[in-house]
Amino acid sequence: MKKSLIVLVFLIQACTTEPKLQFQALKTEVHSPLFETVWENGKTEREGDLEIIRSESSYSYDIIPKKNGKIEGIALRYDKRNKNILFETSYKNGVRNGWERKYSPEGAWLYKATLYKNGKKQELRKYNKGEMIYILPYLNGEKHGVEQVFSYTSGSLQKRTTYVNGTKKKIVMYCKGKKSFQVEMNGCRKGLERSWYCGTTILKSETPYRHCKRQGTEKSYDEQGNLNYTIPYRYGQKEGKVKGYYPNGKIKYKVTYHADKVDEVGYVYDSKGKRERIDYDTLMKFKDRLPTHMSDWRIE
């Protein structure tokens, strides 16, 4: 019973709750304290049990609250040229605890925020002039949860990556509000990787993986959903007959591979099914890679 309980607790801790899918970056407003309200006379002074240390260098003004010699509260730094805030960091008993925010010295707009708890990172956010374009949660100092990336220019969702205790588990990419790529992972690819044409639900390709390597038949489709070609893989290498197809499903070309090398056997077919062997020199041009353009092999 005790062993089962331990396993259950471990599984609960390992699980990640995926945040609600949002396709647009969120607007964020942060009101940092103005320089004039916190600098005052520029002198170090006591406020209750805190010592507010105010100092300046050639480049910045610093305001650091301390209690019993350790930073306690929100430490601030301002640009000396324009008095815009550069960063603010929350401390408790000398370690970061709460939000640390960094600002652009030119416009004082927030561009990065990191949440800490007892000195350990809990969440990282990035911004572009008020829009949150990146978010990544942490657990015990490791990436844990769903990393979300939004376009720097349009703010639209681009990518979601799921982490568990620092290990990548899933990647999903988006284009024009629709899924364009997806793969399961356990540090490396596993299962079926899929891609779709941008802004559609039309499948573009699917590639099976096993033990981090391509294993099985990769398939490619055109924008009308017709099969383009198939590639058989074994342990990450092309092995067997690579086949290309006409939009009507008839065979267009067939090339045999062994151990990722073309095996000197290949045929091209016309639209009526007439077959012609591909000459040796042409095959050798593609000996290390799958030919992507086969039109000059066709028989008219």
Elements, N to C (H/E)? HEHEEEEEEEEEEEEEEEEEEEEEEEEEH
Q: How large, in whole angstroms, is the Cα Rg? A: 29 Å
Beta-strand fraction estimate:
over 45%
Fraction of residues in helix? under 10%
Oligomer: single chain
- Which structural class best describes the helix and strand composition? mainly beta
Form type: elongated
Low-pLDDT parts are: 1-14, 293-300
How many helices? The count is 3
How far apart are the termini? Answer: 74 Å
Mean pLDDT: 87
The number of strands is 26
Sketch the major β-sheet. 26 strands, antiparallel
Which terms summarize this structure?
300 residues; mainly beta; 26-stranded antiparallel beta sheet; 3 helices; disordered C terminus
Can you tell me about this structure?
It is a single chain. By secondary structure, this protein is mainly β. The protein has a domain at 22-134. The protein contains three helices and 26 strands. It has helices at 2-14, 35-39, 280-285, and strands at 26-27, 45-47, 50-56, 60-67, 70-71, 73-79, 85-92, 95-103, 110-117, 120-128, 131-139, 142-143, 145-150, 157-164, 167-175, 178-185, 189-196, 203-210, 213-214, 216-221, 227-234, 237-238, 240-245, 251-258, 261-269, 275-277. It has a 26-stranded antiparallel sheet that branches. The radius of gyration is 29 Å and the shape is elongated. The termini are far apart. The model is unreliable at 1-14 and 293-300 (pLDDT under 50).
